[in-house]
């Protein structure tokens, strides 16, 4: 035993050292002896210290700064110490730092508040921290620090996988983080994940799948695309990684119509739809695929491609200002490592339409009032006039009646729908022995031509 600088006796203790920052620290088992020997006395007769509030539990992301606050009333001559209880490491006594860790520090406001600061926290800082008073028995309170780490996906897993149609692939995704991340899978574009058996029969269809490994069997071309591995543990940001799945098969070529019609001097676009994986080499030819000349981009031919999805595309051939020798066969072809395919389209000239021009001449006849005077002879006929309903236009109807009488119907040949035509009935009168000849005035609103017909018919029967 030996005396310290204050003349008090230090009792021998078993020292346990902890490595922090590369330097040893005295363990918590020696704390009471040090406090009793190096600091002031036990403070008998004074009011007992008391904690005003508990230490809080703190969860913080790696790299952030945190602090614990310990508030004590009636501390008197007693002292406050900070200890990492799970490792039994003394960090500070009152305002004196014991640990050599430069990221830790303590403050005292000169009254009743002590704070322990930890900057740029690391996962190893996680644990239980104790604010302790050197009373007998000791008084203490504890708070827990949880250092969390956002998820991170390992780069050692491949990001591409492929198989022939009907085959299978397995996607693996691992991640680190605190707490341990949950792994899930989704397809890009909101498409469903389809699970099949080896024969290709569907087992289930899901929007997402939870697990670090995604197995796809009985692959079809529609399974091609991007799959997302998502790692989440509640600590932002969530991490994701893209996996490209390819399904290989030989090309297929389709067309909307095998025959396309177009008039000369016009523009036409021929189209072929191709499905292939891996992407096919495509070509347009004039004529059959075996003998036709390959077409290239020029002012005459414009060749383009439109990609529809991971395995489908549209081939376009635009031909400008069609001439007679442009009509005929055109072939689109596609080839990859698994096979080739082609389709021939027949371009035909649209027959010219024959246009007949009809010229219509319209003659306008002026209708005027005609006055005809008929001089009756001794056997002058008696004429009666009666308004008749309109009949078929552009027609002249003559009907012979019984005996010496006839009926004449004159219809408007000028498209006039007014009822101005008259029908004339002529009857021969009996011979009168005496009397002056009678005069009849005939009024007819018709054309000169129509009036002449009336006169000729009347004179023929006189």
UniProtKB/TrEMBL annotation:
Q: Which SMART domains match?
A: IG, IGc2, IGv
Q: Kindly list the GO CC terms recorded for this protein.
A: neuron projection; plasma membrane
- Report the InterPro entries cross-referenced here: Ig-like_dom, Ig-like_dom_sf, Ig-like_fold, Ig_I-set, Ig_sub, Ig_sub2, Ig_V-set, Neural/epithelial_adhesion
Query: What is the first-listed, main subcellular location in coarse terms?
Result: membrane
Q: What domain of life does the native source organism fall in?
A: Eukaryota
Question: Where does the record place the Ig-like domain?
Answer: 49-146, 151-246, 251-344
UniProtKB keywords: Cell membrane, Disulfide bond, Glycoprotein, Immunoglobulin domain, Membrane, Repeat, Signal
Q: Record's Gene3D superfamilies?
A: Immunoglobulins
Recorded protein name is (African queen) hypothetical protein
